[in-house]
């Protein structure tokens, strides 16, 4: 578990980069087949009509912006921060999103269907109780998911930039927020 | 059992200094007030790190592979030690 939450502390940087690159390619390909689009580094959507270019570029820009956010914050805090470690963290951070895309393996989720349900004013239909339990389970799952993502960033950034102070993490948060906004604007204007 | 050299005062935690040295062969005793060398002021873990660093000819990458950890982890340990030695006012 410790290794999963901070692989950069334990694994060789080059081996990790190769593994991350393979997962990046496989993840992007599976996202195309699972009709997933990425509008920012922390965002994903399912759509009935997806553009191949948007999914691939969306994932690429999301990963690149995360890398830049870590690298910028890392260099401000510690001049010895390396590109390869930031790239590894940026790519590793995206892996859970590729796994999450498998929720849509039977293609039953899409933004269009959700919008239709909202317009019809029913999200919970016949089996209301089961659907409510499912919905709340999903909410809990996403909260847990976000906490784990936070732990991964906290621990890994500590390793890549030797961050210790609260101000170090404040710089990181600001950098991530800035790059999320920039990448969202770029992807939406593609 | 190998006795561990105490470097800190158990009462006030100030760094100790050497006040007596003796020869095990002829029992000659030398008394005085000598400060501890820098290396001995470090923790056993830090001393072990320096020894490893020396034995790998200063290669952090080789140290990392021997210890089974990554390069940035070893580099951080080294940076922390450098800061610790600077804080000792040497």
UniProtKB/TrEMBL annotation, chain B:
Superkingdom to which the source organism belongs: Bacteria
Matching InterPro entries: DUF2089, DUF2089_Zn_ribbon, RNA_pol_sigma_r3/r4-like, WH-like_DNA-bd_sf
Record-annotated DUF2089 domain positions: 9-39, 42-85
Protein name stated in the entry: DUF2089 domain-containing protein
């Amino acid at each position: 578990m410790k290794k999963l939450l901070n692989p950069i502390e334990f694994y060789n940087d080059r081996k990790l980069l190769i593994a991350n690159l393979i997962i990046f390619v496989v993840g992007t390909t599976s996202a195309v087949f699972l009709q997933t689009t990425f509008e920012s580094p922390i965002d994903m959507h399912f759509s009935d009509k997806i553009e191949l270019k948007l999914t691939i570029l969306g994932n690429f820009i999301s990963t690149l912006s995360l890398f830049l956010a870590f690298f910028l914050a890392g260099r401000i805090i510690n001049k010895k921060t390396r590109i390869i470690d930031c790239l590894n963290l940026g790519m590793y951070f995206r892996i859970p999103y590729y796994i999450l895309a498998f929720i849509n393996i039977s293609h039953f989720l899409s933004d269009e269907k959700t919008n239709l349900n909202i317009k019809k004013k029913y999200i919970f239909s016949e089996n209301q109780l089961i659907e409510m339990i499912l919905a709340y389970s999903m909410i809990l799952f996403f909260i847990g998911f976000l906490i784990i993502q936070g732990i991964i960033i906290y621990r890994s950034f500590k390793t890549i930039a030797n961050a210790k102070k609260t101000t170090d993490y404040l710089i990181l948060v600001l950098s991530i927020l800035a790059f999320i906004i920039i990448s969202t604007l770029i992807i939406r204007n593609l | 059992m190998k006795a561990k050299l105490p470097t800190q005062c158990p009462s006030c935690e100030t760094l100790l200094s050497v006040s007596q040295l003796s020869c095990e062969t002829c029992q000659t005793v030398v008394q005085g007030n000598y400060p501890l060398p820098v290396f001995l002021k470090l923790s056993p873990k830090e001393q072990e790190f320096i020894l490893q660093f020396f034995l790998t000819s200063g290669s952090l990458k080789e140290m990392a592979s021997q210890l089974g950890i990554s390069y940035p982890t070893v580099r951080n340990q080294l940076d922390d030690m450098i800061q610790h030695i600077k804080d000792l006012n040497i």
